[in-house]
Predict the structure of DUF1907 domain-containing protein.
Amino acid sequence: MNVTKHPRDNPSLEELADVIQRSLEANFAHATASVVQCPDLRQPPFNLAAPGLSGNPCIADIGGQPNLFPTPNFKAKYSLLAMAKDMQMSPAEGFLLGAGAAPFQDIGHNAELAPNISWKSKTESPDLEDSSSITINNMTRVIEVKQGGSPSCATLPSTNCALMMNLYGSNGHTGPVLRVTGRGRIGELNFTNCIRLGLNSVYGDSHPISLGGAFLLKSGKAKFHVMPDFPAPDRLPFRDRAQLEKEWLTYHVFDAPVVCLTVMHSADPEGLGLRMEHTHCFDAEEGKKGGHYHYDVMDGEEVEYEAYLHPAGVLYRIDQPVP
């Protein structure tokens, strides 16, 4: 499996906060971006698998949308812990979060995945692919469409994934992070695109910034999609992206609160075929909400977001599909 490594030259967190706040202020009635000590993200409402986002921060883009369209690539099967190894993460401790496709090889069908997993060593020589040498805290969610079309969100014991995956990795330590808030959207951009396009407007296509972390839809409602199972063979290949988006994906509007795990890039100057923004969300309480984030719905209750983000020092491109 081909792996390439791409270091990132990041400005200070304070500089990034200033850039992000100016972008948000053009799109939200109330917006802030500041550098804070990360709260314990294991606690509600975030319910993550590690307390923070600090310690050797890195991002990986694994596989990609060509593994789904025009026909699914059933050979694109991955392990989150093997990916952590490819990301040169420590086997002693680590934390992954992100967005991607569920392991059809384990659950028997296609679905959305919100990876949320941490580990710590329990031997002197831990190995990420040897479960007997590490203690795993797997709070990953699978979001799927049940019979009748209603979505379901539940924890997934498997540590596998498939097709495409965008991961933010770190040691999971607390430390300085970007705290970003937005309330009352007045512009056209959704929360994540407002952040990444604001960075692009300042740093351009030649100085990419890659961010990862979590945000909470605190109030209001948002639109999500959930992938159903793969189409029957006689309905493949997909004719075009429009068919995939209009005839296959299922769309849902959910009320807050919803936890969102996100990975984003301001630019792709190396031509790595990056997924520029990928956010998967879950409901930690009722198990009925989640999926791929599109945008908040400007209807009724004012929308509000709260995010904790950190730039990656290194980007890894893993198993890039051949065009």
